[in-house]
User: Fold this.
Amino acid sequence: MNVKEYLNKKVKVNIDRKMGSKHPKHGFVYPVNYGFIPNTISGDGEELDCYILGVYEPLEEFEGECIAIIHRLNDNDDKLIIVPNGINFSNNEIDALVEFQERFFKHEIIRDNIEFNSLIPELSVSNIEISKNFYLQLGFTVKYERKENKFCFLQLEENQIMIEEINDNWNTAKLEYPYGRGINLSMTLKNVEEKYNELKSKKIKFFLDLETHEYKANNKTFLDKEFLIQDPDGYLLRFNS
Assistant:
């Protein structure tokens, strides 16, 4: 079955694991209601499972809207995110609410439309195909592109950037390597060490290897693990925890 067919549609869910109940095998407690859509078959051969978000009491059944899909990358058991009509949750909020179970799996959140960040940097690049392939190698995915404009919108977890081959419309001065002098793009990852080791295995060249740095803010000291990479045009990318 194609689970994407449920996106933005109303569905009825039978709740077999109520909020506050324990998993029969693993023993963790369900902080949200969890159930299934009757008469469906998921990738694991069982009914299609659903997380119910935005309801704060145990339920027997529920009808709501599917706003997103938890697509497991190392398992064949996708989950729907169901909410009351008119309610929405960001990807970060969804991750936090389903972490009690999804922490055991690698996953991505699929939506029918793009949830745009409030701030999205756009980089002028010398060659759109070289840059796009570089970012794909880092783990970014293409959300959409306008090939006729040599433009591409990319995302890695909650980090979004746009790249476009150099044109005369946006330039304020002649671009010379390295581009973006004096700025680095800080991008937070769920597991920065895992990404570092993944890229290291791909022989990616690092501008700065993984290190732990101290930062002070409001009289508090924070520890941040981070590594830096330069893209093909010299833009400095800082991946942190």
